[in-house]
Amino acid sequence: xxxxxxxxxxxxxxxxxxxxxxxxxxxxxxxxxxxxxxxxxxxxxxxxxxxxxxxxxxxxxxxxxxxxxxxxxxxxxxxxxxxxxxxxxxxxxxxxxxxxxxxxxxxxxxxxxxxxxxxxxxxxxxxxxxxxxxxxxxxxxxxxxxxxxx
Length: 150
What we know:
This protein has 150 residues and is of the alpha+beta class. It has two domains: 55 residues, no CATH class; 69 residues, no CATH class. Helices cover 33% and strands 13% of the residues. The protein has four helices and five strands. It has a three-stranded antiparallel sheet. Strand 3 and strand 4 form a beta hairpin. It starts with a strand and ends in a 13-residue tail after the last helix.
């Protein structure tokens, strides 16, 4: 390991030393968050397809106290964290009421009970849970349309 190295630039891979200034991408989902210069940051923006990205100047930690600076923080989700407690999950309505009611009224001329929204939201949650498990079994972290089976 290089002496005084804190991190590598996300674009050019040049070293970013302890206690030196660097630029951080402020897009929360960005995985490459440290850049040695604004030029490197601007090369990163179109590659990562950020629409409204900006850089913040930060200082790397000192070699004596690596905890003092704002390290590049990444959210790590373990399989146990991903399986949330069902009591903690929101039970909000997932269906757009006006769109559903319009569809039923146009298709059949019938009205729609308010209880339908709760029931359909439960069905959507069930299908989402199955799709999540399918994506996980395929080794993916993204749920895709092919994970939803009728």
